[in-house]
């Protein structure tokens, strides 16, 4: 099977657009080059800016299989690369022992038949494929060394079996929500792109695509509200996902504009932290005077300093965590 080839970033952007993903121009260029230069693409950005969705859309346009590795604390090679099917190996041993009365050669237990393929090995063996290494910032930093080794050789080596590689290496997309800094060594291997929140017109366009039956005026109001919310000093600023949820809620509730009624009913689609509720409610449907300037909104203040927001989110997460711990202690 041959994957489609794109003449340039704008051709790729048009193809992504066709499958419902609207990239900014920098992302389309980075993605085009990552594919051509066969380099992993490292995407960083706030939660909800479309990192995971981008990898899905790339798989669609490349007519490739999407293989996802969700990272988490403690993830290791047996979850990312491959493992051995231990229960089956034991059964095989027993069966052989019973029938012949002799212990079989253990090397016969380390063949492809007993191999459990985890996402990276699967991606290396599947052509064409897009390997999404999602939320790498959640993994421990030793895990990055393991990835580096795989990307260096585009193969997985298994001592018992040898080196496994496929016809075409997968397009690798790594994402990070930047809860910690990822090592330079890994970044150096990749093409890097920071995904920002979409500007007003692109967010309106995304909403139109993703939310059926959304009135144009409401799309503009929701996108404008997102700008106000992201400019405020919230613990959890909303991403595109929240904008889509709010718009879908409006359609379900039969609301045609962003009124107090909608803000009250759909607050939970946008306010994702207890401390943010009052501010989100206030900014979703501001007093009528401000509401008349929804569409233009030329002079919004700059986004608050990232470090400050990260610090607030961090403190809030710790408070959440302590709360859970305390809850467990009582149980
Ligand atoms: N540029 C975009 N074009 C189309 N949909 C988008 C875009 N950016 C975000 N979305 C939508 O917003 C939602 C959140 O995106 P997601 O990829 O989960 O964010 P992230 O992985 O960065 O946290 C998804 O439903 C996605 O489809
Ligand atoms: Mg994601």
From TrEMBL:
Pfam families per record: AAA_5 (PF07728)
Biased composition (Basic and acidic residues): 303-331
Every AAA+ ATPase domain range: 37-210
Top-level taxon of the source organism: Bacteria
Stretches the record annotates as Disordered: 293-331
Protein name per its UniProtKB record: AAA family ATPase
UniProt source species: Plantactinospora solaniradicis
Organism taxonomic ancestry: Bacteria, Bacillati, Actinomycetota, Actinomycetes, Micromonosporales
